[in-house]
Amino acid sequence: MHEAEENRQREHDAATRIQSWFRACKVRAYVRNEYLCSCFYGVTPPPFCRVSRQTSRHHLHKKAIIIQKIWRGFTARAHFRQTVKAAYFIMKMNFYNDVAVRIQRTWRGFFVRKYIHNFYARKKYLEQVCWKNEHIRRELDELEELQKRERNCLEMMKEQTAKVYKAHRLHHLMSTKQCPGVFNSPFRPAPHEMELLLRQVKYEAPTRLVPRYRDCHVGMPDSAAPSFPGNLGSPWIKTTRTCFSCKPMLPPIVNKKQQDLFREPGEVWQQFVNYPELMLRLQTSYKHLEEAQNQQ
User: Fold this and answer.
1) Shortest CA distance to 228 belongs to which of 181, 282, 166?
2) Helices (H), the chain
3) Among 33-47, 128-142, 166-180, which is the least confidently predicted range?
4) Are the CB atoms for 146 and 154 separated by under 8 Å?
5) What DSSP assignment string belongs to 171-213?
């Protein structure tokens, strides 16, 4: 039943299509004959009037071209007007955008300079930084000059100490009433500086000996060198001889033994045996005196 209905619908559509095509051909032929007869004869053509197919086709082609030309011109002008409107709108929007950007740029620059990055505040800050830098540089220059003077003073003190030490070492070369010294030549108009220094210093024997075989460098100060009062130390005297060829200094004449920090065990035991009360008194507590006063 369903297939029969489909076949009937299909046949009906085909018949409708054939009828529409035939009627369209019939109407077009009638219209063409009527139009051509009216153009050539000026009257309505009879049903039997026939015009050559070639002439009618040429005439219809020309008229179709005219109709197409008019229509295409109309559509082109409408499209051109629409294009001009769109271009004018775009140009106007671009102009408005440029003006808006210029206004925004001016306002943002003013706002930033006034409230965010103040130009005058930044300028004042930079001036203060420059002033502070100059002040610090001036202080650093003064500190450098002070340190330089201190270094020069220290070097002068070292030189003076070396001269004093040398004078202590060469004190035996000082002039006497009977014999002039090495530094007090009769051919000099005035005594030498070392001669004056020798007269000022006082001879003192060294307190320590220098080891004979000691690995040392010539010209360098050493803690084992003998020291004298009144100087910062006793630097070595510069000489071309090595440490192995230097003669050791003689010990002092006085043989009295210096007292050390701790006493000898035998001496402590002898004191404990001879003076037991003293040792017991030392072993009492530090509150012994207060306790004795309280008892009295």
Assistant:
1) 166
2) 2-40, 53-111, 119-169, 193-200, 265-274, 276-283, 288-295
3) 33-47
4) no
5) GGG---SSS--TT--TTSSS--HHHHHHHHS-----SSPPPSS
Tokens 């060829």 found at:
245
Mean pLDDT of the chain: 75
CB burial of 253-268 (b: ≥16 within 10 Å; e: otherwise) equals: eeeeeeeeeeeeeeee
Cβ neighbours of residue 170 under 8 Å, at least 6 residues apart?
A: 194, 198
| pLDDT above 60: residue 186 | yes
What is the tens place of the pLDDT at every residue in 18-48? 999 999 898 888 777 766 665 555 545 454 4
Is the model's pTM score more than 0.85? no
Supply angle C-alpha 210, 212, 217, rounded to 5.
Answer: 75
